[in-house]
Every structure is written in C-alpha cells, then in structure tokens.
Amino acid sequence: MKLPSDAKGSALGETMVSASSDMYALYWNPAGLAKLSKNNIGISYNKWILDTYYLYTGGGLNFKKIGSLGLGVIFFSSGKIEGMEELNNYDLAIISGYGINFKSFNAGVSLKYIRKYIFEQTSEIFCSDLGLSKKFYKNKLNIGINIKNLEMFTSSQSLSSCIDLGFSYFNKAKQPEVNFADCFELYSFHYYISFL
Q1: What burial class does residue 86 get, using C-beta atoms within 10 Å of its C-beta: 0-12 exposed, 13-18 middle, 19+ buried?
Q2: Inside any domain, residue 83
Q3: CB 105 within 8 Å of CB 83
Q4: 25: which DSSP letter?
Q5: Tell me: the pLDDT tens digits for 147-178?
Q6: How far is the C-alpha of 132 from the C-alpha of 23, rounded, in Å?
Q7: What are phi and psi of 170, to 5 degrees?
Q8: d(C-alpha 8, C-alpha 137), whole Å
Q9: Which of 9, 188, 185 is nearest to 18 (CA)?
Q10: What is the reported pTM?
Q11: In Å, what is the CA distance from 164 to each residue of 29, 132, 160, 172, 185?
C-alpha cells in the first residue's frame, strides 16, 4: 500500500502531502479534501511486471462550508506466480475521509480498512490518517503534514506508522513549481524533492 495512487503524485516524486487537492488526497493527505473545488471521481490503473497490477479508484464530494467527503478503494494483486497456479496474493484498502477548511488552515481525517492476503494467510487492519495543511506568503507557499497509519485494530500483521511533512510553492497559475516532502518512519528517513 506504499505505491503512489496517481500519475501526478508519482511524477512529482511522491511529494503530494502539501499539494494534493483532489480525490487522491485520501492517499496523500486527507486535509487536501478540504481544497476540493468541485465534486470529482478518478481511477488509476498501473500494470507492473508479469501479472502484477495496482488499481486506485475514488471520488470526492464538496459540501461547501461543511467540508468534503471522499471514498476510495485501492487494490494490488501480485497476479499468478509461476508454479503456484492456485495462489493469488493481494492487498485491498477501503478508505473514507473528511476534510474541512477553517479560516487559517485545512484539517482532515481518513479511516482505512486494509486486508492483506499472502500465501493463504489473511490479516486485517483498521487505521486512520490525520492531516493538516496551511497556506503562507500570499497563498503561494503551502505546508502539509500527515500522520499515516495510526492503527486502531490489527488481526496479525502491522503497518509502519509515519509522518509525512512537506511544502509546495505555487506559481501564478496555482500549479506547484517546487515540492519537498519527507517521510519520518522508525529507523529510516526518506527525502523527496521535485521541480517543475
């Protein structure tokens, strides 16, 4: 469930924690749902090597002053493994989220149900993400933070929790020119930066 959900996020080096403003905000930072300007839906399908594929589909509803709701589904399949015809490993995530705009910042929360099926072993995880974003410097600089995978229940296998922190600088056309993001996980750090 760590693969990028959309082409834009992948192209920008996974630095969307501060720049996401559509239904893909469910994946990057639920506070981005508050930036929905209209209702939208989307689908992303990535075919990988052999029979491996990744599917994300989601939608967002903007309710103006009371916030925005989002719903998404992520499915990853390893496909058929040669010599193991009956085996079909997969990950499934169902995500719901809510984002609201306060006067000086955006906040969001998402709830996730994740089911992993690997070699006839199944694990289920319920977790949440908490996100914030704030604009500075004449609305050209946006800072975002997302605390990911706060577990509420797990049947066996655990997810690593992390904090995504990033900023985006937007041009006059309101497109991100510079994005920077960092993911703080226990025992490892990942730095991503992108320029357009």
Answers
A1: exposed
A2: yes
A3: no
A4: H
A5: 988 888 776 666 778 888 888 888 877 776 77
A6: 16
A7: -105, 145
A8: 24
A9: 9
A10: 0.83
A11: 9, 11, 12, 26, 9
Residue type, 78: S
- Write 85-90 long-range contacts (CB < 8 A, 24+): 87/119, 87/120, 88/117, 89/117, 89/118, 89/119, 90/116, 90/117
pLDDT digits (tens, 9 = 90+) for 35-67: 998 999 989 998 887 788 889 999 999 998 899
Contact 29, 131 (CB under 8 A): yes
Q: Is 126 part of any domain?
A: yes
Range of the domain at 40: 7-195
Count: domains in the chain: 1
Alpha-carbon gap, residue 110 to 98, rounded angstroms: 6
Q: Residue 52 — φ and ψ, nearest 5°?
A: -75, 135
17 neighbors 29 (Cβ within 8 angstroms): yes
**For residues 175 and 147, is the Cβ–Cβ distance under 8 A?**
no
